Prior knowledge:
Layout: H1 8-11, H2 22-38, E1 61-66, H3 72-85, H4 101-111, E2 117-120, H5 126-139, E3 145-152, E4 162-163, E5 166-172, E6 184-192, H6 201-218, E7 227-232, H7 236-249, E8 255-259, E9 263-264, H8 267-278, E10 285-290, E11 295-303
Helix pairs in contact: 2-4, 6-7
Amino acid sequence: MDEPWFDYRARLGPRGYKYLPDACQYLLAAAKDALTRSGAESAGPAGDGPAALAGFAEERRAAVVGTNSAVAALHADITEVVRAGGINRLSPMLTPFFSVNLVASRLSTEHRLKGFNTTVTSPRVAGLEALHVAARELGAGRGDLVLAGVTEAYDPGHGTAAAEAGSVVLVLRPPADAVRPGGALLRTTLRFVPPAALAHESGRRRAGREVREALEALAAPGRAPELIRVVTDGSAVAAAVEAAVRDWSARRVPLSVEAVGARAGALAPMERVAHDLRDGAAGPRTVVAVAGEGNVAFASVDPYGTA
């Protein structure tokens, strides 16, 4: 599916990107923008080159990418081509990307990220999960800089769910590192609420307790979030999580519930995080993403100098 809003030539350059899957092009463009905005990239005259990350040892750079549908269209194309004409008709340029891991690998190749390279695919929360995995690895001393985010491309099999296309990438560094203005402290945590457990009162109580404990864990000492966004899909799990967040935030934190419905991707919650970072907030803001399958992810961004 052609996306008229995106021209890889303008965003990435005229050569070397034409035959990459759409999600890969989006990811590379988002990473390039993120590096430029963070100050980690000091581009040369041509505005390109992996050497833009000089100052960070290659083996200490890494990537974590979340996705649900990055290569769904490619899988559909491969199936159609094989059925119509056999495997000899497959494109040698695109077919290797049947493995979703190669999307993140291409990002590592682009910027010589020789540390860990991880792809996560949990439904609806994969983007926030990528932030969580990256933050844990940085906290454990396994890297100095991680490109973490989400990328999605149009899924021809999205059915009644809304298809997503685009990418969000953040540049993460250990919290002790000095950062330029505009940086923020990231806190994350993950939970799982088994849908079947909600059929029982004990399961509903435990789900509520887990959500409230997660919010407490994210809160900076003495600093409640100035806003909590809950991105829901209208499922029973989403309703239970929303109720628990309302209970925790009552009379102390403004709450925004965004019922975006079923979506074939994990882009929407990361867009909210990116919005909070661009919005120039004075205090911490939290995004909660929920999937009907039971996955729940929490991410809080708190501007540096205020924690």
